[in-house]
Amino acid sequence: MAKTVLIVEDERAIVEILKFNLKREGYDTLEALDGETGLQLAQTADPDLILLDVMLPKMNGFDICKTLRAENRTTPIIMLTAKGEEVDKLLGFALGADDYIVKPFSPREIVSRIQVIFRRMNQMQAAPDQGRLTIGNTVIDLKCYEVRVGGESVLLSPKEVEILHLMASHPRQVFTREQLLDNIWGFDFNGDPRVVDTSIKRIRKKLPEETDVLLRSVYGVGYKAEVRGDA
Fold first, then answer.
1. Strands 138-141 and 146-149, how do they pair?
2. Contact 56, 81 (CB under 8 A)
3. Whole-number Å distance between alpha carbons of 53 and 62
4. What span, in angstroms and rounded, lies between the C-alpha atoms of 122 and 117?
5. pLDDT, tens digit, 9 for 90 and up, residues 155-173
6. Within the chain, what is the greatest distance between any pair of CA atoms?
7. Where are the alpha helices (DSSP H) in 132-229?
8. Among 82, 112, 154, 221, who pairs with 103 as Cys (CB 3.0-4.6 Å)?
9. Phi/psi class of residue 46: alpha, beta or left (left: φ > 0; alpha: ψ in -120 to 50)?
10. How many other C-beta atoms can be found within 10 angstroms of the C-beta atom of residue 127?
């Protein structure tokens, strides 16, 4: 079954270009020209991925992303914007976006980024040696991108689940920011590596205090996971 991409963009010419190129690659598409319609489609149509412009009429992309994540929706989100400031990128990632592309962009770049996200999710879910990981009271399940602590669900974005799973799979191993970018984002990342710091902070904030997986900072190097009791 073809995957469905929701395009939320107020410039109709860009929508038509994206729609044409995505359909050529075998994707189905849904389109919205304003934020309120985009949010409604994201909530009711359950697309496989969302291309989300930041500057939209009626409701901006940041608020849409924030709303969807607050509703426990883990649909991958790629933010589109004409703004190139790093603070905007970091805000998008902080709200739970999976990728961020600055206009002007080529349709080929968009398709490539989408393919990377879908390919990585498929690999994570299909790999027999990955998938479900249980550490004490914490379960990280890549088959359905779920995290549970003490039986209670913890809302993490797909990228955050992948980061937590990777680090928890290698306790005490120190990962640099560059290693996490290479392993999780899976493409040449030209933005600010502080996106890793932002993601780690979000995971720490979301995990309850009683979790048995602890993410530690290693000054001047990066981050590592430790198991409570072994730390």
1. antiparallel
2. no
3. 9
4. 9
5. 888 888 889 999 999 999 9
6. 57
7. 158-169, 177-180, 194-206
8. 82
9. left
10. 11
